[in-house]
């Protein structure tokens, strides 16, 4: 396996993309079965942390190869194109300027990936200029993680603090986990994957923490366990531990190179699935399982078709 490509992380990308589709299909269809809620608040609750760690992990090589500006520029173009694609939907919802900056629906992650990535590059540069290394980057990540955690529990237990939704996930969730991914990437590419414990040791820990996360999700949906009307916040150590253990276990797991470009397919599923779900909703389709299958199958079909069209165009174009 090339040191520039960890195939297990390509499989992670497609799994996370499928999880996003199911989460949005369940949300838009009003599917509220107890098992679905437990899965949503348990396993699917790790999607954003895992996506963020994966993003930070990849950013290390991007920055080290001097491609930070190119990466930011390309991501801005992608965000603007998909924002324009969904514009007929979000423009009618008002607050155009806010939605353009913060991102419509699933595009919020891309918007904050740009913001957090730019901030990370600035802090990495500051650390190099001042000789403090990653200290500015890690310090801000710790402060933001603590801010989100403490505020969440103050609001839940004492009904104090800022409403959790005002502390955007892009600030108190994405950024800290992206920094964690960057640190993992830095250590991995400098020392090799063997610097982490073996997969056979990590997987039992990861599965145990995932089981505890499902138990936490069960408690969160139990009305008798909730002291206030607000949703019980995540247990931060459990979420962080499960995210770290799962990511490292995958990083240390050798998987065969996929026969198809899973990274490309996962990107198309992520960007296009919302369009499929919106069309189904407009047509009256509210079945969560049909929505999930369609939200995966249609983008994959489009991705394969576009790749074939591009291949034919490249072969027939002069030169």
Give the helix/strand layout.
Blueprint: H1 7-29, H2 34-41, H3 47-64, H4 68-85, H5 87-90, H6 96-102, H7 108-130, H8 135-158, H9 169-191, H10 199-220, H11 236-251, H12 262-282, H13 288-316
Could you give a quick summary of the protein structure above?
The protein is mostly helical. It is built from 13 helices and no strands.
Cα end-to-end separation: 33 Å
Q: Helix amount, in percent? A: over 70%
Radius of gyration: 20 Å
Molecular shape: globular
Low-confidence stretches: 225-229
Give the biggest beta sheet.
none
Mean pLDDT across all amino acids: 87
Order of helices and strands: HHHHHHHHHHHHH
Report strand %. under 5%
């Amino acid at each position: 396996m090339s040191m520039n490509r960890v195939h297990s992380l390509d499989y992670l990308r497609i799994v996370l993309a499928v999880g996003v589709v199911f989460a949005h299909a369940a949300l838009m269809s009003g599917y509220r079965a107890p098992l679905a809620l437990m899965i949503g608040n348990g396993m699917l609750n790790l999607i954003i942390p895992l996506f963020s760690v994966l993003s930070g992990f990849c950013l290390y090589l991007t920055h080290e190869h001097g491609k930070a500006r190119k990466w930011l520029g390309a991501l801005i173009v992608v965000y603007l194109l998909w924002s324009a694609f969904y514009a007929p939907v979000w423009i009618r919802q008002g607050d155009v300027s806010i939605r353009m900056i913060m991102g419509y629906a699933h595009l919020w992650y891309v918007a904050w990936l740009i913001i957090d990535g730019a901030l990370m590059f600035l802090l990495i540069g500051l650390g190099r200029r001042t000789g403090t290394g990653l200290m500015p980057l890690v310090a801000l990540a710790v402060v933001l993680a603590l801010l989100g955690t403490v505020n969440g529990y103050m609001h839940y237990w004492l009904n104090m603090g800022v409403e959790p939704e005002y502390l955007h996930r892009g600030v108190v969730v994405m950024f800290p986990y992206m920094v964690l991914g960057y640190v993992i990437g830095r250590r991995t590419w400098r020392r090799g994957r063997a610097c982490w414990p073996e997969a056979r040791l990590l997987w039992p820990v990861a599965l145990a923490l995932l089981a505890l996360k499902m138990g936490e999700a069960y408690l969160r949906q139990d009305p008798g366990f909730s002291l206030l009307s607000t949703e019980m916040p995540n247990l931060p150590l459990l979420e962080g531990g499960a995210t770290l253990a799962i990511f490292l276990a995958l990083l240390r797991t050798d998987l065969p190179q996929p026969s198809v470009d899973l990274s490309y397919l996962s990107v198309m599923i992520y960007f296009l699935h919302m369009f499929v779900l919106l069309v189904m909703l407009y047509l009256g389709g509210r079945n969560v399982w049909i929505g999930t299958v369609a939200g995966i199958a249609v983008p994959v079909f489009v991705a394969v078709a576009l790749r074939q069209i591009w291949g034919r165009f490249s072969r027939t174009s002069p030169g």
